[in-house]
Amino acid sequence: MSFYTTPSRLAQAEAVNRVLIVAMNEVKFIAFGEKSAIGTRDLAGCSVVIIASAYGAILAHIPPRPIPNTSEPYAGDQNVQRLMEEVGGLYNQRRNYFPDTDTYAVFAIYNGGVALPDQKRIIEEKITQIGLQPFNSIFMLLHEIPQIKLTARFSWTRSTGPARNLSSIRKIARFRVKPSPSLSSKPSKLLKPPPVGSRVSNTGAIISGS
């Protein structure tokens, strides 16, 4: 008898070299013209911040403690501050990639509450300071996180005709949270079909999984 599992969406994208992997304790930017996806894995009790548009994305994988770890009691909060400063810096440097943004912050839940409330506060305050309001907070049960895939897909179309400026580009965005069957939360969706006569010029995805 043979046993096999279907590779995760992240693993499939990695196998064909179309995804930029963000390791734990890293912040990275991707232009969707260079690679079509950005992703991360092994969330466990970590937090994730995603800033995305039709043109690119910034993803931060924020652990509870810095790497390498230290005995300093406030090292975790200081590390969050540092990583969020990096997020803000990348956003300002690449501002032309974000004429419109969708921002997500993913937090772990443990024993009925946010696992790291101080770090959640720091992350949300920094997102607000950057000017990315409103944003979306997603909470995931700590013991369920390895089974959950969070996917956001972005594509845009350029309408036919002579217009070539930014206003002629329409964005299609679809977001869905795929919890394991044991969770009761319903996926949220936003889907807009492309106009007749237009063509898709690029596609990007944000993926987290195993």
UniProtKB/TrEMBL annotation:
Residues 179-210 are annotated as: Disordered. It comes from the Eukaryota. Residues 199-210 have a biased composition (Polar residues). Residues 179-191 have a biased composition (Low complexity). This is Uncharacterized protein.
